[in-house]
Design a protein that fits this description.
The protein is α/β, with parallel strands linked by helices. It has five helices and eight strands. Helix 2 links the parallel strand 3 and strand 4. It comes from Clostridium bovifaecis.
């Protein structure tokens, strides 16, 4: 069984390097609503089916790169983040990302979705996908979600192109010859 992971195409939204907590939260909302910068990558050939996040940037990406059956699901949406602290002091965007990721990993109440809830929804959809043992499945999702999927696949015996943060529009392939 092969599983291909693709992060949606690049989002067409300018980001300020420093933001207050309100600015960060507004940016995250705009990010979910923004359009994408499409490219011409097509990866139809070896995939039997595609599972895709229900966010528009993932759906557009999936329809651009794959022309077979696409199953759209909320279980593959991005891990939602919001500012861990409330401040009018402008902090670097990357610091916000780190603080919020730490808060999420610790199931902090400041985050819209607890880590255990996120991992449960991801495991639920992977259970469905892994039952299709004779199929090669493409998954189009988001950086944080794909990172967690990668970790789960590696624990389940898959081997493939590892990544820390998936690049937009790039295919990462994982295979488990025992399935």
């Amino acid at each position: 069984m092969k599983i291909g992971l693709v992060r949606h195409f690049k989002v067409n939204l300018k980001r300020e390097p420093f933001m207050t907590s309100d600015e960060y939260n507004k940016y995250m909302t705009k990010y979910d609503e923004a359009g994408i910068i499409e490219n011409e990558v097509v990866i139809d050939k070896e995939w039997d089916k595609c599972y895709c996040s229900s966010l528009s940037r993932a759906i557009i990406t999936a329809k651009t790169i794959y022309h077979g059956e696409i199953i759209i699901t909320d279980k593959l949406v991005e891990i939602p983040f919001s500012a861990r602290i409330n401040t009018k002091i402008k902090l670097p965007y990357h610091l916000w990302a780190i603080l919020n990721r730490i808060a999420w990993t610790r199931n902090h109440i400041s985050q819209p979705e607890a880590r255990k809830v996120t991992l449960q929804r991801i495991n639920d959809i992977l259970d469905v996908i892994l039952k299709e043992k004779d199929s090669n499945i493409l998954i189009v999702s988001h950086a944080g979600t794909l990172y967690e999927i990668e970790r789960i696949l590696l624990r389940k015996g898959f081997k493939g192109n590892k990544f820390l943060k998936a690049r937009n529009g790039k295919l990462y392939e994982f295979e488990n010859i025992n399935l």
